[in-house]
Amino acid sequence: MTVENGKATRLRGNPDHPVTRGFLCAKVTQYLEREYHPDRLLYPMKRTGAKSKGEFTRISWDEAGDTISRNLQRVACEYGPEAVLPYSYAGTMGLLNGAGMDRRFFHRLGASRLDRTICSSAGTAGMTAAQGLRYGTEPEQFRHSKLILAWGANILGTNVHLWPFLQEARRNGARFYVIDPVKNRTGALADKFYPIYPGSDLALALGLMHVILGEGLDDAGYVERHTRGIGALKQKVKDYPPDRVEALTGLPKQEIIGLAREYATTRPAAIRLNYGVQRSERGGRAIQAIAYLPVLTGSWKDLGGELQLSTSHAFHLNRPGLEMPGLQQKSLGREARLVNMVELGHALNELANPRVHALVVYNSNPAAVAPNQTAVRKGLLRDDLFTVVLEQFQTDTADLADIVLPATTFLEHTDLYFAYGHYYLQLARPVLAAPGEAKSNVEVFRLLAARMGFPEACFLDTEDDLIRTLLDSPHPFVNGITLEQLEREHSVRLNLGQPFRPFAEGGFGTPDGKCEFQPSDLDYVPPIESRLGDASLRSRYPLELVSSKNDDSMNSTFGHRAQVDEDTGELWMNTLDAGPRSIESGDRVRVFNDRGSVMLRANVNGGVRAGAVRAPSVRWPKRSHGRQGINVLTAERLTDIGGGPVFYSCLVQVDKCGD
């Protein structure tokens, strides 16, 4: 970063980092605009009018702390501490400000625990079921691949630092294929694009295994040495011949056969699997089945083979020491109840014994990102719900708060960062002074602990104390890495072999180190809201909506920008769906189902196949027509495993609007 007279003028990547290599994604390149935006929240505020009005006045931190502590104590006394619900996710990826002093605070209070499932929990469950240990291919190894499958992975939009390694592989003769319902920028640059129907990934994986096992293309030696249950898996995949899988996925059977043969016989072949796959009703099991593919082919033996979904499980830091879940014993004598964050609308409106009477939101904007937006907003509007929001901007959620607290950005506080796309641990120190009276999450929850009278010394821990606690881990991947080393080097590779090939000789996360195939869990049932799902729903809402990520924003983080409004105001349609509705590019359209409706602008292109539509997410509802964002259409149903959201299992109808 370049700083002149105390103000940052340029933000750039670390040229010495072996993965990021000095360049930033399109999202972070916008960050200085966010840092100095005139709408940045600078002071604590309290609501002065009705919740629906969004009227606030500035107050002091003393008044804010007193008001919050008084109300949390009142709620805990009148209804029990579980009537308090924290709500947070990945607005910051830092461990201290994302899952540090806040966890200690809510554990000590005895508040309800939040099951943080909105992003990756189904994929986590699927990978755990398949491998036990959720390790993956190093990004640096992709340069050695001869075939790369991007499955549900918009690499240019969400993993751009992997792209140079893929391009290096392609220059050396590698083929690059994309499997996705949406032909995004990554798909447009692929050597082959496979336009799968939304939510049918499990069926495709089973179909590929049918061909691989049926034609004897598996690595029999690796399978014999390092797996259990192959007989049952062979029997299961017999039920998924290519002609059946064609009907389920929309891919021609000859392409399915060809892909299976090519993947199984090309060495090394790598899969970059991403979380788009797991945002459907069968998403968790789809991840599990896809993760079996490199086991069957023995791809884990190959440099530049294997599979990557996430690398985060390798960061075996001392999370219990940081979060201190044992503090719950102080107030409850047991674990507090667990509330799934996907079901926030239900939690705020229907959960009882006790009802939620206080909500503390940080690192998230649930009024925009949570599904079933109508129910979420109804709950947030309750007069008997005391809501605190820690934020950098006046989001839709902040508009419905009783107290709003100004939060720092990652440039303004100390934190420790793990990764889910590589294996480097990183320390960040503040490079800019916090503007106005903004405070970090660590500071805020330390302050609130003092106001609540919590006597434990852990609430006095400094940021460096918290980092040292995290690093106090016996696991060989982490053991020996110190704060002093991070201070010198900024980013430090985990203690892994060079190259890291976690399952080359087995070593899966089971007692005997063998991958255990569990085919009884892998029957494909089409999502309720899909082309092959509930017939009554499909008759009224015949189009499958995929609200995938907008390339240049991080969920709702950049929702204050006009360009995000432009990018997320579109509905991609196929000509075969637009034509009968007399819809052309540029037309205003209404997208609706039983849960609500949104107004968007049609973009009739080759980006989706017939029967599917795509709306980039996530726009702030208050900047949308009628204050309705895309998640007014999505349901609170959960994935097959992992309790994740089914954002991409969503049926809608589309009408052209009058001028």
Distance between the termini: 48 Å
Work out the helix count.
Answer: 25
| CATH top level assignment of the largest domain | Alpha Beta
Number of strands: 26
Q: What is the general shape?
A: globular
Number of domains: 4
Question: What is the radius of gyration computed over CA atoms, rounded to a whole number of angstroms?
Answer: 25 Å
Beta-strand level of the residues, as a percent range? 15-25%
User: Percent helix among the residues?
Assistant: 25-40%
Task: Describe the strand arrangement of the main beta sheet, using strand numbers.
Answer: 4-3-16-15-14-5
CATH topology term of the largest domain = Dimethylsulfoxide Reductase, domain 2
CATH architecture assignment name of the largest domain: 3-Layer(aba) Sandwich
CATH superfamily of the largest domain: Dimethylsulfoxide Reductase, domain 2
Question: What is the mean predicted local confidence, pLDDT?
Answer: 95
Low-pLDDT segments = none
Question: What's the short story on this structure?
Answer:
The chain is an alpha/beta fold. Helix content is 30%, strand content 16%.
Model description:
By secondary structure, this protein is of the alpha/beta class. It has 4 domains: 1-36, no CATH class; 41-118 and 319-411 and 438-460, Rossmann fold, CATH 3.40.50.740; 122-309 and 502-521, 3-Layer(aba) Sandwich (Dimethylsulfoxide Reductase, domain 2), CATH 3.40.228; 535-656, Barwin-like endoglucanases, CATH 2.40.40. The chain contains 25 helices and 26 strands. The chain has a 6-stranded mixed beta sheet, with helices on one face. Helix 14 links the parallel strand 11 and strand 12. Helix 9 (201-214) packs across helix 13 and helix 9 packs parallel to helix 14. The longest helix has 19 residues, at 61-79. It is globular. The model has no long low-confidence stretch (mean pLDDT 95).
